[in-house]
Input
Amino acid sequence: MNEKKVSDIPRCNQAIDELKRENEILAQQVKRLVKAESKLYEFQEELDAQLKEYKDLYQLNRKLNARLDMRQICRLTIDYVIQNLNYERALFFVQGPTGTYQVCSLDGYYEEAEDSEVAGLSIEQDDPFLAPLFAGSEYLLCKAGTETQGLECLTTLHMHEYFVYPLGAHRPRPVALLAVGNTAANSEFYRKVDDSNGTLLSMGNFVGLVSSSIENYFSYHQLEESEARYRHLNEILEQRVRDAVKELREKDRILIVQGRQAVMGEMISNIAHQWRQPLNILGLLAQELQMIKQLGDLNSEHIDENVNKTMKVIQQMSKTIDDFRNFFKPDKEKVEFKVLEALDKTLSVIEERFKKDLIQTDVERTGDPVVIGYPGEFTQVLLNILINSRDALIARNVDSPKICIKVFEERSKTVVTIIDNAGGIPEEIIDKVFEPYFTTKGPEQGTGIGLFMCKTIIEKNMNGTLSVCNVKDGALFRIEV
Amino acid sequence: MGTSVGVGYSLSRNPQEAGREAARKALEQQGLSLPDFVFVFATVGYDQQLLIQAIRETTSGAPLSGCSGEGIITQAMVAETNFGVCVMVISSDEMRFDNVYVRDIGRGTDFAGERLAGEIKPLLKADTQACFIFADGLFFDFDPFCRTFETALGAEVHLPLFGGLAADNWTFGRTYQYHDDQVFSQGISSVLMSGPGMVASGISHGCVPIGTRHTITRSKGNIIYEIDGIPALNALEDYVEDGWRDQWNKMSLNLCLGFKTPDTIKKEYGEYVVRYMIEKEDKEGYVKIQSDVQDGNEFWIVRRDKELIRNGLQDISRQIMAKEGTGNPKFVLQFECMGRGKVVFREQEKTELIRSLQEQIGGDVPWIGFYTYGEIGPVSGCNCFHNFTAVVAAIF
Output
């Protein structure tokens, strides 16, 4: 038994050694495990901080994109520096019209006295402090405990460690500056200002975002200014067009008035002609009364007969006046009217004159067409064309002057043609007869607006057409309404 | 009237604005203007005096107690940041809050325990429910404090202690305690709560031992000089990466020490009590924890286990409900170890975890807390100190 125990001792010792080795291996494994877990927690905390930062940047980006106001961009930027990047103080400078950078917004904890001092802070653009930035440096960095080189303005920043970043494109200087940092007294509770990769990456991402936002702001406002200029030009152009149209309409109106006045002169001549015969009759009646009285045959019967005749003549003269007055009455609105009635009215006005000039007028009527338009203006057109024809017939001393008027319907339109035998219009000018102030009659007789007025009335006021062409012995004017 | 409680918080960087905003929100929540008592927890980025002054002005000078933490907690809001403050205002005609304080605990926490007991004793009543302790986490050794405190109060008095050790966001320079207008360090701010009702609490750590056993071979009080016969730092350096001496604050979080739990509380608490090494000394190679040890004590390196932490938080709500049923608490105070915050959990995980605990206890219950350098809460009737735990005190 004892022999067996003694022989087991080496085996036991071997087992104990093995257990010790295993124990040692296990202890080492545990130590490695603890180290690994420490590292894991460390990485996890870093990862969490990074994720939070990217999430915060995303939120900031959304907010910045929703705002295109420089003050709001300032506010969001410095708020982010304090709340998310966890620096003690932040100053946002914006370049003024003179080039000086002035504090637009500030955040963080300042004591009251510092607050007002910092709020009024400005940095001249040629301050040597900023020179490295304008020479291409991405940022200015002052770490805690390092010497600053003659930067008086920084003592006013009330930061003992800081970053200064340019914001936005250089035009030629950056449009804004961002200063972030801490005081020495409180820096241990804030994010450190250092040039570690993590810090620079974090600041770089943030500053890049804000710079883009500032560029968007400027682009938006440039676009807005361009749009405003374009709108302004457009308005000016539209106003000019409106003025031109108005001016043209006014000219048209004046031309029409002038045309009417010209026709009116013609009419007065016609009235004079028409009144000549009744005036003769009235003269004869007066002489007759005197003669009967001298003969001593004057009685009430003679007087009554004379008065009746006189009154009839006067009534006829009065009717002539009414006819002319109605002829020139201006049309206020479009109405339906019969073309033949307008033609008869026109002819009644000029027939006596035409008889005197030995001009024969033939009228061919087919149906009794009705059109919508201005009857007064329409008769004025007919009158103008007829007078033009008469003038041509007289001027060319035509042997058997004749005007043929046809009224008919063609393809749902009412057509009036006026054909004379005055020899036609010379081909070189036929295209110009409807132009304003074009006349072949010379300054004494013609105004050059009669046919222009006719075309305006038919085509603009009544949506019809007025054209002219030469036929066998003369000219043909064609009205389609 | 009963008890009205409102909670507000602010993350503003300006101490005056933050103090006013948090206090105003708390008052507005219950329509209060003159509260009977105010709890304040804040982080250390602020000028603490300006912060407390603003809160005092806004709360009409109501009695105030609290301390600085590594982060703040309210319903649905957890912020581990240098700039955060939360305020709880209480108005009650049934509960009473008496606040006291002691300073200079650096002279010895045993001395501090005795002095605090001296302040508290005249205020103790038959209906006193609990005492809240907010002590400087950089100068606190629980065991001598508790021993002298309980001795000075007398054996006939059993006063449950709840609270957390003030923190300073890993700077390990200076924590703050608040008492009315006073802001101080190296002190204890304390609140005695009396009146009808009761305090139900839950405590959970969520750490597991790994590796082989270690033995403390030389120590004094809360200082461990040697482990396994070699200087303590040398014994621990194999567990950490190079450069650990410069990053001790966070490195030491991953080197928690697990000691066997005393039999008296083992059943309720579990196998191990966990300790955080708050301080090291490079020259002598020692480490310091926040309770006492003795030569021959054995310990294991423990690691925080996320799954256990999650399950542990559910246990807390079960513990509280088991004590008080399903009714809603009047308010809740939570003392959460800074080692269970962002250093171990992702931000969203952490928020969801605490939110889930809050919903189990009461999603609309006034809730305030902070991330600590150490937690205090009774286990099996004994006042105990904890690291890496969540201590939740629900006041019914």
Remarks:
- Chain B has a mean pLDDT of 92.
- Residues 180 and 312 of chain B are 35 Å apart (CA to CA).
- Chain B touches chain A at residues 11, 13-15, 44-45, 82-83, 169, 171, 173, 210-212, 238-241, 250-251, 254-255, 301, 303, 342-344, 346-347 (CB under 8 Å).
